[in-house]
Structure formats: structure tokens, C-alpha cells
Design goal:
Layout: E1 3-7, H1 13-22, E2 26-30, H2 33-37, E3 41-44, H3 49-58, H4 62-70, E4 75-78, H5 80-84, E5 86-90, E6 102-107, E7 117-122, E8 132-137, E9 141-145, E10 150-154, E11 164-169, E12 172-175, H6 186-198
The structure holds glutamine (GLN).
Length: 199
């Protein structure tokens, strides 16, 4: 089974570990560079991107993670994790810094100005069986994507209709929402598959 780490500095780490284990991965928390070396893929959980950014510096994980990303390690970021994977962040704190990740611009707390948290069905390209029940909590949305970024999902109803909330660039996957907070494991299974193929 592929070994998949969850960046365990802040955020909903346990939920991701449980979701990954449920779809056949060997899931483990990652806090140190040596732990990162031992994983085939990494999940960056939801939480608070400004805090995760600071902790990444403190735990000296920035360079090791950037290097693994450059070498093709699959990474999945949900919510704050999506922000950490974005090349550009709008409405971020000036000192927050993400990884060398997806060629996209995200707006932090984007839905928050309309509704803080909400749930909506989101159809994901490449995932069969109907839309995912997506949970958004002070979530970012994607405002611009580069030519190599594949849009996997958009909101289809309500005030945020048309907003991009799931993307993929090669081995990097990001969603605005939190599949780890539902019982639907299809998104985690999709990521585990991606890791299997990348190994
Ligand atoms: N608003 C948070 C941030 O800016 C993300 C919220 C979440 O991960 N649920 O990082």
C-alpha cells in the first residue's frame, strides 16, 4: 500500500488520516523532514493557512517539501491546503507563503463574504457516481489557473455558482472543500490512486 503522510502541524489531521486509511493507504502524520522522506504522497489539511505557513518555517519543512514537489511527489491540499499549494494568494497575510505548487491564484476566505460555511453538491471530473457533497468552511476559491491546470470541479448552484473549487496540475490536487469531513471517500481514493500511479 502507498504510504501517505498528512502534514500534521495544524488543522484537521486526524480526519485525513482516517479517510486515507479507509481507502487502503498507510497513513501517517508528518512533522519532520525525516518523516517526509518516508512517504510516497502528502496531504495538506484544512485549518488556517497563515498558521500552517508559519509552522512550516518553524519545522524547517519548506525546502524539503518544495524539493519533493519538484521531484513529482503527489500532494493533495484541502481548503487551507489548497491555499498552501497556490502560486498566488489574494487576501492572504503579507507574510504567508505557500509551496512551489499549482499555477493558480486563489482568494482566501472568498465565500466568507457571502456565507461563512455552506454545503453544495460538486461534480468532479474523473470521479464517477454522482456529485460529491462538498463542505465549505471559510473556503478559498480559484480565480485564475495556468494552462497546465485542469479544472476538476465548480460550484453549480447558489450565489457562488461558477466558482472553481477543485483543480489538478499533474500530481498536485486541491479542493476548496473538505471531503475528510464527510463519509464519502471517493476523493481520497482518487488521490491514493494518483499516488499509486506516481510511484
Ligand atoms: N480560511 C482558512 C485559511 O485561510 C481556510 C479554512 C479551512 O481550511 N477550513 O487558511
Amino acid at each position: 500500500a502507498p504510504v501517505i503522510g498528512v502534514l500534521a502541524l495544524q488543522g484537521d489531521v486526524r480526519e485525513h488520516l482516517a479517510a486515507l486509511a479507509a481507502v487502503g493507504a498507510q497513513a501517517r502524520p508528518v512533522r519532520r523532514p525525516a518523516e517526509l522522506d518516508a512517504v510516497d504522497g502528502l496531504v495538506i489539511p484544512g485549518g488556517e493557512s497563515t498558521t500552517i505557513s508559519k509552522m512550516v518555517e518553524l519545522f524547517e519543512l519548506r525546502e524539503p517539501i518544495d524539493k519533493r514537489i519538484a521531484a513529482g511527489m503527489p500532494v493533495y491540499g484541502s481548503c487551507a491546503g489548497m491555499i498552501m499549494l497556490a502560486a498566488e494568494v489574494l487576501d492572504g497575510r503579507p507574510d504567508q507563503r505557500g509551496f512551489d505548487g499549482i499555477a493558480m491564484t486563489v482568494r482566501r476566505n472568498a465565500f466568507g463574504r457571502q456565507v461563512d460555511s455552506f454545503e453544495a453538491p460538486v461534480e468532479i471530473n474523473g470521479i464517477d457516481g454522482g456529485p460529491l457533497h462538498a463542505v465549505f468552511i471559510r473556503a478559498p476559491w480559484v480565480e485564475r489557473v495556468g494552462p497546465d491546470v485542469e479544472v476538476l470541479g465548480t460550484v453549480t448552484e447558489g450565489p457562488a455558482a461558477g466558482r472553481i473549487v477543485a483543480v489538478r496540475q499533474n500530481n498536485l490536487l486541491a479542493t476548496s472543500f473538505h471531503p475528510e469531513l464527510t463519509h464519502d471517500r471517493r476523493l481520497h481514493a482518487y488521490f491514493v490512486n494518483l499516488v499509486r500511479h506516481a510511484r
